[in-house]
Amino acid sequence: MILVVGLSHRTAPVEVRERLAAGPEAHAAMLGRLSARDEVTEVMFVSTCNRVEVVALASDHGGDSAKQAIAEELARHGGLAHHAELTPYLYDVRADDAVRHLFRVAASLDSMVLGEPQILGQVKDAYDAALAAGALKGKLARCVSRAFAAAKRVRTETSIGAGSVSISSVAVDIARHLFGDLADRVVLLLGAGEMAEAAARSLGRNARAVRICNRSFDRAAALARELHAAAVPWDDLEGELQQADVVVASTSAREPVVTRDMVKRAMKARRGRSLLFVDIAVPRNVEPAVHGIDNVYVYNVDDLEQEVALGMKGRRQEVDLAEKIVSDEVAQFLSWSRGLEVQPTLVALRAKTRAVFLAELERSIGRLTHLEGDRAALTQMVESAVSKLLHAPTSRLKARASGGEDDASELASAMRFLFDLQEIGAHKASGRPPDPSAGVEEDERLPH
Amino acid sequence: MKLELVDLLFGVTASVYLAASALFFASLFGWPSSSDDASAAPARAARWAPRLVAIGVPLHATHIVAASLVLHVCPVEGIHFAMSIASMLAALVYVLARPRFHIDVVGAFVAPLALCFLLASRFVGGGAAPKFRSAILPFHVAANLLGVAAFTLASAAAIAYLVEERQLKQKNLRGIFQRLPPLDSLDRAEHRCLVAGFPLLTIGILTGTLWAHEVEAGGAAEIIRAAFGYASWTFFGGVLLLRAAAGWRGRRAAYGTIAGFGCTVLVLLLYLVRDAGAAAAVAVGGP
């Protein structure tokens, strides 16, 4: 049974999440410890700033001991004395619900920012790490790869990732619509506070240069050192407006620091080159009349927040369609998975029937020596008889299992009892399920 | 060369341009479907529309060559054929310029224009009247055709620029805005097309003046056409000059480009009216 145990932004405050967040080394160590536990047969460890989850294939039927083992390892990973400390924040989802949860996480339907693209990459990293460590090899690996396929469908068939949903991403979006590539553009920050820093990190990331202009030059210089930018004196503001392409204003001035006359003079010197002001200060730093100048665009904090709200609304409108895609993909996987659960029984039944028939054939040939020359034909006849005899029970049991009928496991159980299929018992005794792909006919396998 | 082959080429080319136009409009204004994958459809349409224009260009060129051979018409003499060539050249320049300037959306103007001008070529006339034939005429027409192709793209970029600029000023960042290329790319593409087209138009104006002098064309229609031709040259030249001297960019340059293109279209329309009038006169047994 597939099981997910973890905590996320929905259940745990950041103080708890940050204790469990893992760097590459801690991630590998945690994965190693989880793989070594007998309670799980396959495992993947996902760690992001908003989510720490262990996705596992439990060895036990109910998954309780697997959950206990995972909780213990999470507590150890977080340096907690006892796993009970984590209990208020932990959730666990099992079986079909766990599959749905994994698919929704990969499709970014459970993210703090709906539709954000990073989570898919983070789950892929976790998947790659688990594959490399040999912790994923069968049913769970297939489940995760189907979750990726579902996430891809959600991104391509819906607009869940469209629109900007943060002030900085809206600013970047506007700048890109104005200038295209920002690689040859200059970003000028007015102010050196936290907001300026945040804007610089998003807007300045791809810019040719970032310049910081602040009333306190020392503060501008300090931030410039941190951001690998250049500090410029406040008195040079008008000259800087002639060079910059994007101006992010976030000073605490009570009056506008950028006036219409100032920008008109700058635009003359700029020979009409476009200029974008992102005014995130309250009160505003840029006179509203500046927006009326040709080739100059001013977006204040209200404009940006309105755009964020529209972006969120647009994404929420796509949720139903995205959930439908996830449901389709989950249903496909579960159908395949349920067919897989009765597969060992069917493999054992076929093996036993074939063995009995072939043994009888050998005995007959031993007595009727004139049939020795026809051995190949007779063996072929036995194979054919086995196939025909088992066709109906095989297809019916598969259909019951794939359709999610409750009696599929009972029928499989009855089959094992009636035909005394010991092979299944051998798998159970080992505590490890059989290779899920063993005996699965090619046309029944889901594509990767 | 058989007439049926020409008809077939015409039909296929027109269908390709029609499909490209439909896909461009679908990508810009939404997809008329309620299916589940409606959200992805505009993106697919936006990918395929420029490819269809690229397929249409060689078909269009083949049609022009084939039709001129079958009808024994010099393609640069009749205005209908000439318009078809101009639109084909505009489509060709678009296909070549698209990867560099990221101006896919300009195809929404170029593809329907190519379709309209191709359809117009069905009404091909017999070429210039003998009294107007001159050695200068092919140079005049060829230079103007290439110029018109460049100005078509420039004005398409200018229209897209004005739409996007208006949305940015109104702070409406939804809908068609999301499907338009960056404003600076449109401005740059418009400028480059003007720079390419202006010398050609200048040659066209000079050869046209020489041709008019040579054949002693001095009727009212010729004078009006020449006036609009000079007006378009003045608009395009003015835009280029003011951009270089006074930093005219963006909206003002776009308006100037569209005004210049409007004059160019008027010249072409006057040619069409002339040819239609001449055809009607022949039909009723007139001169």
Could you walk me through the main structural features you see in this protein, from its secondary elements to its overall organization?
The complex is a heterodimer of chains A (448) and B (287). By secondary structure, chain A is an alpha/beta fold. Helices cover 55% and strands 12% of the residues of chain A. In chain A, β8, α11 (260-270) and β9 (275-279) form a beta-alpha-beta unit. The radius of gyration of chain A is 32 Å and the shape is elongated. The two termini of chain A are 21 Å apart. Mean pLDDT of chain A is 86; it is low at 424-448. Chain B is mostly helical and 287 residues long. Chain B has helices spanning 3-29, 41-71, 79-101, 107-120, 137-170, 183-214, 220-246, 250-283. In chain B, α3 (79-101) crosses α5 and α5 (137-170) packs antiparallel against α6. The A-B interface holds A 156-159, 162, 170, 173-174, 176-180, 268, 270-274, 291, 294-295, 297, 299, 303, 306-307, 310, 318, 321, 324 and B 36-37, 39-40, 102, 164, 168-169, 171, 173-174, 177-178, 180-185, 243, 246-252.
The largest sheet of chain A, given as strand count, sense and whether it forms a barrel, is: 6 strands, parallel
The counted number of beta strands of chain B is: 0
Segments of chain A where pLDDT lies below 50 for 5+ residues?
424-448
Helix content of chain A: 40-55%
Strand content of chain B: under 5%
Of all chain pairs, the largest interface belongs to:
A-B, 31 and 27 residues
Shape of chain A: elongated
Produce a short descriptive summary.
The complex is a heterodimer of chains A (448) and B (287). Chain A is an alpha/beta fold and 448 residues long.
